[in-house]
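Methods — Computational structure assignment.
A single polypeptide chain was analysed. Its primary sequence is given first, followed by the predicted tertiary structure written as structure tokens.
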Amino acid sequence: MTGTPDPRPLTGEPLSLDLLNTRWVHEGARQDLLTDIDGLAVWLAANGLDGRFAADGATLENVLRARDALAGLVDLPGKPGGEPAAVARVDAVLSRGRVRARLTPAGPAEEAEFADPAWGPAWLAARDYLDLLSRAPDRIRACAHEACVLHFFDTSRNGTRRWCSMAVCGNRAKASRHYARARAS
């Protein structure tokens, strides 16, 4: 695991959304964790992939392709498909790996296989997005705050989560409404 702390405001989301969340806004400026191999190492470590995949230029290039492909789909209305070009970009990433079914002493298992390990993290993120789409596409959300670019998978019981973080974006929205009411009176 890398010794560099993860600077992102939201972590721990499913892999595909965590990849999208490598871009965020801090004090009005866009930030990007994946500008170099060190940032890739932080992201791999945050997702438990650092022991399986190398943080190198080829992996970074492929992860960026997957992020751009997923970004073209995630905010589109009418999930799960989306626009054909965005679907084709995600499908191109998915073509770089496969799932191999196995029987182990513990029972049935599946494992991902890649002809080129540099595609591993990108493929796993794209595959994770397919899993989210099959489970609950309506729970893949963008934060409702107009200045936030983060995404989350709504795991609340009634499915009404609106903010990436109630402590940050939710609080900003509440403070904004309070200020507007106070000014109006």
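Note: Residues 69 and 89 are 5 Å apart (CA to CA).
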